[in-house]
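Recap for those who missed Tuesday's class. We walked through two folding examples back to back. For each one, the amino acid string is listed first and its predicted structure tokens come directly after. Nothing is annotated here on purpose, so try labeling regions yourself before you check the end of the notes.
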Amino acid sequence: MRITPIGSVPPSQPSAEGPTVTGKGLPSADLWSPAQGDAVPPSRGGGVANDPVIARLGDRYEQREALALKALGCRPRSQAAAEVLGLRLPRWDEVDSREAIAALAGVDVGPLARAGVPPIAVFDFDNTLMTGELWVSFLAVAAHRRALDPASREGTVAEICARATGGVRPESFAGLDANDVMTRAVELFHAGRLTPTDMFFVGLGSLRGMTPATADALADELFEHGAPGQKPYKLNGFDPFPGPGDSAEELVAALRDRGIDAYVVTAGFTFLARRGCRYFGIPPERVFGADLEVEGGVCTGRAPDIVVRGKDNVVREEIGVPPLFVFGDSPRSDAPMMRLALGRGFMVEPPDSFVDLNARQGETHVVLRFGPRRG
């Protein structure tokens, strides 16, 4: 098993057996454009997902993108592309989930199928399929179960003091062990003094020495029973109203019914997202994220930073197929991935900063709300 230090950008191969570790990544490839005519640009390499349909096509993302764009015969994410694909939304600025599901149920993947390009959609996980911060809730469960590395205490305290707003002094943690310190970090997060990015680094080192089996068991507890004082995390899937026709699960199912396979690319941890994706019928080999580094059968407390690597590069190098649709909520990590969409990008319950970025960049991503539209 090869070991990857944090900050590297490797193409990884998913494994059903637990966290994976991988080697050095490749530079992102230039995108093909219609101005280049029928020419297929040379590949810069890259792996593919463990999907038999995609694997038969080889490892040339750029070639598949060229074939897909030629099949569409127009600019990606344009109104013309929507017409070719049969995507008929009632509005092109903002839709609710019922409207999106109804429109996606009528999509025609024939143009891509005839070109030999598998139709796929790519989702973020946190606050796109499920609400909440999965990693923070996992840390709350791990601390409650006294499962964190005792030797991680000082490092965790240092990270909290360096990152928390409003000033936190080391002596305020006197008498607290590593698990109690993490509980305090979770409280600071919910008070708005630590961000999700802060918590990534605050919590990562505390997993040193934990076995993947223990991490999986804690994830099972989180999804089935919830963090202390919270409902089971499996109930966090977007499902705004009683009755059918508006949930994230049904959105994924609508795509599946049209022959469009769902993939997930998360900036969070692969083992957690894979556990959550079970509730959406998305198999583990189609879920990509930060793989916990494992050495000697235990976690080292290190993992790659997917935001630094870029989700768009994960799609190119590991999935290897341009997506028809991309769903996400983050202007920082999801916007680059959404620019790979052939049909449309969907900004799921986006912050205003994402909507503003979409307008400034002249993109055509659609706001998707699980619940009533604004206005």
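Example two. Treat it independently of the first, because the proteins are unrelated.
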Amino acid sequence: MQIRIKSSKIAEIVNGSCTHEDLVITNLANLTSAKSDSVSFFSDSKYKNDLITTNAGLVILKQSDANLYKGPSIYVDDPYLAFAKVSNLFFKKEYKPEIHNSAQIHSSSLLGENLSIGPNVVIEKNVNIGKKSIIGANTYIGENVILGSGVVIHPNVYIGSDVKIGNNCEI
């Protein structure tokens, strides 16, 4: 399924100001390969020529660089960070909420709703995992760990005891 998102929604997500609010964006790309339905970003003056010649439908950049580009834009403090946030919209991983039967979860741990816990995961005592989190295969989570909601832990990660990880973090 192709993602279709309005430029105004992108501006809202990155906390930026948008010059053209009704553009429909379907992908992201660098300045040189972008097309009219792409969002791209500019954050380094060495890419000034690429900015001038881009075919991007929408460019994320600093307000101080507005004089370099007159096309549809979103102005933000940190274009690189904003583009990273936008990329999450296009590359969100689909997951099926399930707990693999080989996972070892201590009985004192609290598990939120709609979790995906992969094979060979070890979760020690007094762990609290928020809803809609994903724990990849072969991950170890030590005692007294708190994971917020929407956390993604990739496979083969070691998380020691007494660690707190906030909502929507990815490790």
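Answers for example two:
Helices lie at 7-14, 48-53, 79-90.
The radius of gyration is 20 Å.
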